[in-house]
């Protein structure tokens, strides 16, 4: 594994964009943030499609990250996992091996337990999420702070609000178990590594 940081300007960089002036903001200072890849520990043969934000996280071997995704500090992603485009993986998320995270999936670490947002200075209020191995999550699913066991499939658009402790198919808002997984002898890995 190697730790990598790319300086601004390598790949997509929004620092050169100009702010649009309106009657309300003429002369107002504008904060601008560049897309970046900073302090990431990459396994072997990882692939990223720019633009994406990754910082202070760890990716296993053969991980793929699609464009317009953000992976925050402290995230760990297992070997051969695919994170599709427009996905947000917040701090305190651990994803196992051979997982598939569909387009637009959002992980949440702040459940607003005291009816307000807990910013970084209150990170002690954030909660962790752990995905086992061979977990598939469909497009636009939302994953609250939960634990999901190995061999679970989460349907597109579902909201997972409680732990999933039994392999199977889950869908809905909130997600509920709707079916059994295939038998072990018929089960394939979520990701075909020959095609990765």
UniProtKB/TrEMBL annotation:
Xref: SUPFAM superfamilies = Trimeric LpxA-like enzymes
Task: Name the source's superkingdom.
Answer: Eukaryota
Q: Which InterPro entries match?
A: Hexapep (IPR001451), Trans_hexapeptide_repeat (IPR050179), Trimer_LpxA-like_sf (IPR011004)
Query: What GO molecular functions are on record for this protein?
Result: transferase activity
Q: Which UniProt keywords apply?
A: Transferase
Q: What is this protein called?
A: Acetyltransferase
Q: Which organism is it from?
A: Thecamonas trahens ATCC 50062
